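Researcher: Please generate the 3D structure of the following complex. Treat every line as part of one assembly.
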Amino acid sequence: MVNSLFTEFLKLKRSQMFLISLMGAAVAPGMEFLAMIVGQRKHPETVITFQKFFTETNLYILLLIGILLYGVITAYLFNREYVEDTLKNLLTIPVSRNSFLSSKFTMLFIWILFLTLFAWILTLILGLIGQFDGLNSALLIKSFQEYLVGGILIFLLLTPIAWVTLIFKNYVTTIVFTILITMINALVLNSEYVVLYPWSAILAIATNKFNAIYPSEYSYFSVFGTSLLGLIATIIYFKKVDID
Amino acid sequence: MNPIIKTTQLSKVYGTQKAVDNLQMNVYPGEIYGFLGRNGAGKTTTIRMLLGLIKPTQGKIEIFGADLLQNSKEILTRTGSIIEFSGFYENLTAAENLLINAKLMGIQKRQIITEVLETVGLQNETKKPVGKFSLGMKQRLGIARAIMHHPELLILDEPTNGLDPIGIKEMRELIKSFASEKKMTILISSHILSEIEQLVDRIGIIHEGKLLEELKLEELQKRNRKYLQFQVSNENKAVLLLEQVLKIFDYEVHEKGEIRIYSHLTMAGKINQVLVQNEIEVSKITLSKDDLEDYFIKLIGGGAIG
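Model: Done. Output below.
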């Protein structure tokens, strides 16, 4: 596993993808920062708090930017061997198909954790530059926890995206799929179904804010069930598929 | 001698189309086996099945005497391969691409990367990403990757595809050296007969998924030697005359009074005269002009190879 992971890191050498993903991860904190500064200019009496800045940035990451950005990274990782025609080499080394998937998911997990950490630190730095109010250690811990849980839950929900990538073997379908997921996120955001739809339920779980209509178990079941189904589908498909 | 590769009734069906049909292939230790067929004949599908990339619809594959499906890991660690065009991580150098393989194979000795790059003549390409390599360089790197773990069996699917004549010659010499110096058993596929002919010990001819023939190169060449063919009324008497009067001994007697003479090709008139004078009716004389290409065209029922 260590060797597989080493090769996954090596494959990123001289690749622009990592830099692009950092830029993508900077979008939510950057845009939210600009929105807050512009808002304050219009209404100088408004006090911008760190809590609001952290919360709204995380909302953008979890419901809008995250699934698109991480979906592209998933497509890049899982589709790369098809695009560069290296899969036939790897599988005849031989690398087992399960081991191939494990190293891909592990790499994806590390990548997402890194981007989550990057987004959180950037939010903090921008908040300090903007001299926002209310920064304290309790808020730092709480916000970090919310970012981290959100990042982990988005990772779990990338299994169906990995499956779609393996089936269609191109970036376009995967990107269309992530756009669809994001559009439904926007659609259910202000409805009671926000806690049921897996990709929006992660917000409820990460921030521990559920609604009175549906118990929290529904959200957990929705997220973990979707993740598990995606994982099973990915494994079964990839183990059975011919490498033409 | 037990074959290194043995397939039994191997078939692969896509929908209603049989890509490979009851293939019985035998590749023996130490030989270079040429797998010849037109594009779409089923070569790549067969090779991908031999490497576990495609699951057979039916049949059995035994490599090194063991069932491939049950022992794929053990078998593949003793096998090196190139399947059509070699794929690489284009942002990485040749050495970095080989390092990926070395790591995944558990090869600790980094020196092996330098050694195999020297073997294929890429030792000076240390900084250039593979994306900037020519096709010939990529194919040579593919060979380096295939041999870096010192496999006993090398499976090469059209390794000279897209190479220029010099590249083809270099590749051929490299492959020959693996068989002679490293004692590898090699299965090489191609749709170019002239290329296979200069390299292999035995040939298997595949067409529309079926293995039509499997034979030694000498046997094939013998079959395709030029000959004079006489259709005679009495072949026993004719043979006596050939040996005793004309001193011709390099001949074959076939069915229905057909005699093939492989020497004295310019003496058709004289031979005919002797036969006729001895009351043997000669109904047909032909000079065969088949070469190997014609032979294969006949074998596959029309259309050219290559």
